[in-house]
Amino acid sequence: MTARSQSRSAARLAAVQALYQWQMEGTALAKLLDEFHQHRLGREIEDEQYAEAEVTFFDDVVSGAIARGEEIDALVEGKLASGWTLARLDKTMLQILRCGTYELLARADVPTGAAISEYVDVAKAFFDDREAKFVNGVLDAVAKDARA
């Protein structure tokens, strides 16, 4: 894995964490980004060294996922099984899907397969294989629309 792809992977994981915090605490975007820049990205927290993240990429994913939230949520919800809503999803799962959908919509520089597999890997950091497969399925369906 190249240094750039490692820093993007770290940025993706941090973006999911930032969106989770944003949803749970309602932290203003500027304050949220600043907090992650100052205290999270590439820092050591509780004896765990966080990888150096590509800050501009992190900022884009977080800002973009928030700015395009309604569009993203509608797209994701349209790919869920009948009877499922965003409210039924685990809060972390929802942020993974939001970040992945944002990249598929707005980051044409990121290949479809790379975006999907990166968020499957993020899902594996929080969940088991079943949920990781769910992320793969939803983002694959989203990509068919977003990248048509």
Descriptive keywords:
148 residues, mainly alpha, 7 helices, 3% strand
SSE blueprint:
Layout: H1 3-25, H2 29-39, E1 44-45, E2 48-49, H3 55-67, H4 69-77, H5 91-106, H6 112-126, H7 129-146
Antiparallel strand pairs: 1-2
Helix pairs in contact: 1-2, 1-3, 1-5, 3-5, 4-5, 5-6, 5-7, 6-7
Strand order of the largest sheet: 1-2
CATH architecture: Orthogonal Bundle
Number of helices: 7
The secondary-structure class comes to: mainly alpha
Gross morphology: globular
Beta-sheet strand percentage? under 5%
Write up this protein.
β1 and β2 form a beta hairpin. α5 (91-106) runs parallel beside α7 (129-146). Strands 1-2 form a two-stranded antiparallel sheet. The longest helix has 23 residues, at 3-25. It has 148 residues and is mainly α. It has 7 helices and 2 strands; from the N terminus they run ααββααααα. It has helices at residues 3-25, 29-39, 55-67, 69-77, 91-106, 112-126, 129-146; strands spanning 44-45, 48-49. The mean pLDDT is 90. The chain has one domain (3-146): NusB-like (N-utilizing Substance Protein B Homolog, Chain A). 71% of the residues lie in helices and 3% in strands.
Can you describe this structure in just a few lines?
The protein is mainly α.
